[in-house]
C-alpha cells in the first residue's frame, strides 16, 4: 500500500517527534531540578567537588590508605583549601573594596564627560553599590525569618554537599555496580561507558579550569602590581572566581581591572592594563587551553555562551557556574555514543563485506 507522504517528509516527521520527546523530557527534568533545588543543588555541587578531588583520592588509595580514611582526608583537605582560599579572597576584596569602588566611581565620572547620561548612570551605580550591598547584608543578618533561613539553608547545603562528596568518593565503585544492575537488558556496558565518559568530562573541566583560573589570576595580579594599580589583590581574586564562568567571567573581571587603572593611574596605564588582560587571554586561549584541557570535551565558544545564558535564566549565578560542566558531560555522552555507533557500523559493514567475499563462487580454471 502506497503512503500519502514521501520518504523525505516521513523522515523529517520522525526526527521532529524525536526532538519533541527529548525536549519534553529535558524540560520536565529542568522543572524538577528547579522545584527541588534545595536537594538537587548539593548533589550537583558534590559531583563537581568529587570530580575535582578524584585525583587526590585515587592517589591516597594507591598509597594503601583505607577507602573511608582516604575519603575523609580528601574532604578535610578540601575544607582546608577552600576555607583558606575563601579567607584570602574575602580579605583581599574587603581590603581593596573601597579602592575599587572609588576608582570605578572616578572612572564613571570621567566617562560621563564623554558619554553624558550613560556615564552618569554608571556613576550612580558605583556610588550606590556599597550601600546596596550593605542593605542586602543587613537584611541577611538582621532579618528574623528570611535572613536566618537563607543563611541556614546555605550552611545546610554546604554541609550536605561535603557529606555527599565523602560518600561519592568512598562508594564510587559500588555506585557503578548499582548502575549496572539497574541497566535494562544488555545495555550495562554502554551505560557504564557513558557515565564514565560524562564524569571524565566534568573532572577534566574542573581540574583544567582551576589550574587556568589560578594562572590567569596570578599573571593579572603580578601585572597590576607592576603597574601600581590599586586593589590588585582584590582584582586578582575577582579574576580567579570569574574564571569558573568561561568567557563572561574573564571579560567582566578584566573590564573592572581596566576601569580601575583608568580612574586611578590615567589613560596610559589603562592601556597597559588592557595589554596585560589581552596577553593573559591570548595565553589562555592559545597555550593553556590546548595544553591543560586537551583531553577534555572541547566545546565551541558559541555553545558555551548559550549554555551560560540558559543556566543564568534557570538558576541565576549558580546556573551559570553549573551550565558549562553539565554541558561538557552531555557532550561526553554524545561523543561516547558516536564512537560506539560508528564502531558498530564499521564492524557490521566489515563483516558484511567479508561474508560477501567468502560467499563469492570461485572462478573456473582457464582451459588450456
Strand runs, count:
0
β content, as a range?
under 5%
Anisotropy-based shape: globular
Terminal Cα separation, in Å?
A: 55 Å
Instruction: Return Rg in Å.
Output: 27 Å
Helical percent range?
Answer: over 70%
Give the topology string: H per helix, E per strand: HHHHHHHHHHH
Mean pLDDT: 75
Count of alpha/pi helices: 11
Class per helix and strand makeup: mainly alpha
Extract low-pLDDT stretches.
135-144, 364-368
Biggest β-sheet: count, sense, barrel? none
Brief rundown of the structure:
The chain has helices at 7-35, 37-62, 67-115, 117-142, 146-170, 172-182, 188-227, 232-242, 248-265, 267-292, 301-358. By secondary structure, it is mainly alpha-helical.
Structure characterization notes:
It is a single chain. The protein is mainly alpha-helical and 368 residues long. 87% of the residues lie in helices and 0% in strands. It has helices at residues 7-35, 37-62, 67-115, 117-142, 146-170, 172-182, 188-227, 232-242, 248-265, 267-292, 301-358.
Tag the structure with descriptive keywords.
368 residues, mainly alpha, disordered C terminus
